[in-house]
Design brief:
3 strands, 3-stranded mixed beta sheet, 2 domains, alpha+beta
């Protein structure tokens, strides 16, 4: 079986930390990262990028593989509008809407 490539980017907020403490935090994250998991090394090639940042929140982003399905702001806005109209008239399409929302959530979890 061919191994799959996964590329992850870790942004680590090091603002208000000394340079040595920031480096300690990054080293600890590198040591405990998913790329060091022996269970995954059989099936995946995991590349990780650790980026210290001074602004914004720490987070993890999947660079590769790119998710197949992404939602656009227009779709999110439409969903919000439909949800609001159903709140105003609860009997209208409520069962169908709840079913659709569940299906979309399940689909998003499987991505």
């Amino acid at each position: 079986m061919e191994k799959e490539l996964i590329i992850l980017k870790y942004k680590i907020n090091v603002s208000n930390l000394s340079a040595s403490r920031g480096q300690e935090i990054i080293n600890e994250c590198m040591k405990n990262s998913i790329g060091n998991s022996e269970d995954l090394k059989d099936n995946y090639i995991i590349k990780e990028i650790f980026v210290p940042v001074n602004e914004g929140n720490s987070d993890v982003e999947i660079i590769y593989p790119i998710p197949q399905y992404t939602t656009s702001p227009e779709i999110n806005k439409l969903v919000d509008e439909i949800t609001e109209s159903i709140k105003n008239d609860p009997d209208k399409l409520m069962k169908q809407w709840n079913k659709l929302v569940r299906e979309l959530k399940i689909r998003q979890l499987s991505i």
